[in-house]
Amino acid sequence: MGALTEEECLDFLHRVETGELTLEPVHCAQDVFAGDVEYLASNGWSVVVFNDANEWHYIERIATADGRAVASDEINEKMSRLSHYSPTHEVSWKVYRIPGYCDHRCELCDLDISGGWTIVERRMCCHQCVPPDPSAKPRRAPHRVMRREDPRRQRRRPNRR
Questions:
Q1: 3-state DSSP call for residue 50?
Q2: What pTM, to 2 d.p., does this model score?
Q3: CA nearest neighbour of 87 among 26, 42, 39
Q4: High-pLDDT (> 90) share of the chain, %
Q5: In terms of C-beta distances under 8 Å and separation of at least 24 residues, what long-range contacts does 68-72 make, across chains too?
Q6: Dihedral of the CA atoms 96, 47, 88, 76 (nearest 10)?
């Protein structure tokens, strides 16, 4: 088993960009905001990307299913094309789920999130897209709740004539 080559890494990234391979984040990429985000690929490989303020920054590590790996130090010293690799803004969002500098996006509706959000199954969701909690009871606004009176509990009012 030889060392992982620059050509193999670039081919892997190309296959990820074209959708031939899919990535699944280990943690929500936007929740990391600044740090390493690991992705598991559909072919058994993994890639770790440094996310800097929700902007795709550089490759920290690529590892194959057979255990070969290359880290950022080796990439920077020996693999100039790979060290300069950067996906387009569109690929960064659509593939890596990293929306752009200081931005947050709902991963279900693609809209920018300006208020609060919720992480659901490693996906950032705006409040309109958060799936309902099956254990939660539906709530109604208090002014719309109809009160049903139990006829057995009704007080009898005296007849005033």
A1: strand
A2: 0.74
A3: 39
A4: 52
A5: 68/1, 68/2, 68/3, 68/4, 69/4, 70/3, 70/4, 70/9
A6: 150
Q: CA separation (Å) from 145 to 63, 137, 148?
A: 57, 14, 9
Q: Look up residue 39 and give its amino acid.
A: Y
Instruction: Answer whether 87's CB lies under 8 Å from 9's CB.
Output: no
**pLDDT tens digits for 41-81?**
999 999 999 999 989 999 999 999 999 999 999 999 999 99
Q: Which two structure tokens, joined as six digits, stand for 92?
A: 């960064």
pLDDT digits (tens, 9 = 90+) for 80-127: 999 999 999 999 999 999 988 888 888 888 888 877 777 777 778 887
One-letter amino acid at 17 equals E
| Structure-block tokens of residue 51 | 């996310």
Q: Nearest 5°: phi and psi at 7?
A: -60, -40
